[in-house]
Specification:
heterodimer, A: 145 residues, mainly alpha, elongated, B: mainly alpha, Helix Hairpins, 3 helices, 0% strand
């Protein structure tokens, strides 16, 4: 699958980084504003999908990419479970305990462990959606040959 | 009440697409439209007039928040919708590999 026209490629080059940064903003402000891990991860995956759709599947080494994204997904969800399990050892001993210091309400670094959950769930969602998309692309490529 | 009626009209648009289109990809898109009309209705059930996002911040002069419970439910439903849509796309690609077409009138033989 070759890419699209030069207009689409140029606009994608300009917009792709901005979309990626907006996803990072949504994830990192997940405990202050609407949004969070899932919404930001979907936006980050959208920036990658836009890149692949505009430049065609020859621009990237998709087989390597899908292995890396599925490894990232597994490691991120494992870290989320480990952070939740750490609640058994600090403070009040329950699952998903918020053991870190809370900070001041309304600041960026506050709310204890919730930003950590947001960050790793964002990584997990982004790589999971990218894995689904890449699996469909590779499936279609193999069916054409 | 009007907004729920509009959601129902959107649902009927998706149903019309499922019944009349003959391309498999367009059928999948119509199913997604039906799905999202249901999500819109569930979100609108939890909406309160002049309500803001349910995040408590100090010094908030407007103490009316919208209901966060349908939002959490719809977030789960969106994930399930993503999974079903990707599964439908995989089935469509597999049918394309076997029959070399997306037209459902051409896909007649139900052999193995």
């Amino acid at each position: 699958m070759e890419g699209m026209s030069i207009i689409v490629k140029k606009v994608t080059q300009l917009l792709c980084g901005i979309i990626f940064l907006y996803g990072i903003y949504i994830i990192s402000h997940g405990h202050l504003t609407p949004g969070g891990g899932f919404a930001g991860g979907a936006i980050i995956a959208g920036s990658f999908i836009l890149l692949i759709l505009a430049f065609g599947s020859d621009a990237l080494n998709l087989k390597k990419e899908v292995i890396e994204s599925s490894i990232t997904e597994s490691i991120a969800i494992l870290i989320v479970i480990l952070i939740a399990l750490a609640g058994f050892f600090f403070g009040i001993k329950v699952f998903f305990a918020n053991y870190l210091p809370r900070g001041i309400v309304g600041e960026l670094i506050s709310a204890g462990a919730i930003p950590l959950y947001n960050i790793f769930i964002g990584l997990e969602v982004a790589s999971a959606i990218l894995t689904i998309f890449l699996a469909l692309v590779i499936f279609k490529e193999e069916s054409q040959t | 009440m009007t907004v729920f009626l509009l959601c129902f009209i959107l649902f009927l648009v998706g149903l019309y697409g499922v019944f009349t289109r003959r391309n498999l990809i367009k059928i999948v898109i119509s199913l997604s439209i039906m799905e999202f009309s249901i999500f819109l209705m569930l979100i609108l059930i939890g909406y309160i007039d002049n309500g803001i996002a349910p995040i408590v911040t100090p010094g908030d002069l407007n103490p009316i928040y919208v209901d966060p419970l349908p939002q959490a439910m719809v977030l789960t439903a969106i994930v399930i919708g993503l999974a079903t849509t990707s599964m439908l796309m995989a089935i469509a690609i597999r049918l394309y590999r076997k029959y070399k077409t997306f037209d459902i009138r051409e896909i007649k033989s139900l052999r193995g």
